[in-house]
């Protein structure tokens, strides 16, 4: 039973005034618990160099964004705490990593590693302490236009996931389609689901991170309107096709171009998927390519690889 139904039931049973009083007590207990947890987590960050503050977009579950604390824990043995969940007593450094988030972050001590802008009109709202790496050359160009020094070190950290997770799954589908979460209910997706039940796997980008990666690896080819569907396919050497299902994806083409340029991919325009295309048409539209990027350079540039108290 959800909160609203419980409230209505309480009103019917004991009246509005009693229901309101009970609800306020419940909210107060929840708020107090959150506040206490935030204080505890804040001291954890303060007391240990293995606990760092990392910003990622967390308004809803979305594969690329939720990878942040997982990758940081698995690869660098650090516990990542979101700045909105703690009180930054000592004004410790806030890092940004995976995501099109540079237009959002605004911290006194910001260090950037692998992040990008969401569109060509974005700008950084604060002066960073240091920029270690960015997603791609378009993001770097925008930062330089703002007068910030930005080294020519590229790479979305999502490309590093195979360094700690390599599922043993069989290729059981000819094509995997990864729709951006705004495209999940797209009519074309529903049409293809009905037409190609055996050959196409539809992968939920808001699913558990292992499940998303496992399902991508079950497919011979990936078609995605989600950037991190493409990045994950590239990370595991699975040919992919950037597709467009709607105009709903924030940022337009910018973040896709930024990433494609960082790894030397030639596809600069999305494949406009519609009901006229058959499965073979989609598969034949995928170009033969290999990504070209120095991932060790990205790893070595990581500012919290061997962190000291700050």
Spatial strand order of the main sheet = 2-1-3-4-5
Q: Separation of termini? A: 46 Å
Domain module count? 2
Number of distinct helices: 10
- Round the Cα radius of gyration to an integer and report it: 22 Å
What order do the SSEs take from the amino end to the carboxyl end, as H and E? HHEHEEEEHEHEHEHEHEHH
Mean pLDDT: 90
Give the helix/strand class: alpha/beta
User: What is the percent of helical residues?
Assistant: 25-40%
Number of strands: 10
* Strand fraction: 15-25%
**Shape assignment:** globular
* Main β-sheet description: 5 strands, parallel
Contiguous uncertain segments of 5+ residues: none
Keywords: Transferase
Organism: Petrotoga sibirica
Pfam families: PS_pyruv_trans
InterPro entries: Polysacch_pyruvyl_Trfase
TL;DR?
The protein is built from 10 helices and 10 strands. It is an alpha/beta fold and 310 residues long.
């Amino acid at each position: 039973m959800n909160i609203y139904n419980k409230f209505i039931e309480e009103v019917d049973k004991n009246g509005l005034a009693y229901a309101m009083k009970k609800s306020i007590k419940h909210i107060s207990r929840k708020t107090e618990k959150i506040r206490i947890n935030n204080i505890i987590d804040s001291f954890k960050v303060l007391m240990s160099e293995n606990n760092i503050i990392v910003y990622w977009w967390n308004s809803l579950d979305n594969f690329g964004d939720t990878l942040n604390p997982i990758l940081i824990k698995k690869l660098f043995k650090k516990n990542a705490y979101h700045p909105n969940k703690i009180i930054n007593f000592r004004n410790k450094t806030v890092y940004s990593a995976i995501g099109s988030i540079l237009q959002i972050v605004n911290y006194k001590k910001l260090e950037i590693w692998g992040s990008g802008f969401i569109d060509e009109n974005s700008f950084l709202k604060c002066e960073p302490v240091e920029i270690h790496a960015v997603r791609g050359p378009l993001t770097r160009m925008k930062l330089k236009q703002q007068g910030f020094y930005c080294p020519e070190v590229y790479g979305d950290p999502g490309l590093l996931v195979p360094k700690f997770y390599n599922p043993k799954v069989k290729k059981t589908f000819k094509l995997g389609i990864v729709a951006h979460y705004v495209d999940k209910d797209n009519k074309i997706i529903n049409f293809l689901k009905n037409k190609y039940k055996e050959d196409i796997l539809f992968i939920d980008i808001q699913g558990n991170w292992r499940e998303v990666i496992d399902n991508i690896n079950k497919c011979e080819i990936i078609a995605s309107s989600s950037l991190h569907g493409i990045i994950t396919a590239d990370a595991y050497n699975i040919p992919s096709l950037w597709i467009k299902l709607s105009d709903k994806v924030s940022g337009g083409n910018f973040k896709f171009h930024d990433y494609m340029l960082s790894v030397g991919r030639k596809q600069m325009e999305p494949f406009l998927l519609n009901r006229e295309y058959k499965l073979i048409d989609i598969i034949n539209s995928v170009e033969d390519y290999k990504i070209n990027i120095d991932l060790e350079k990205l790893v070595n540039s990581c500012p919290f690889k061997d962190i000291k108290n700050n």
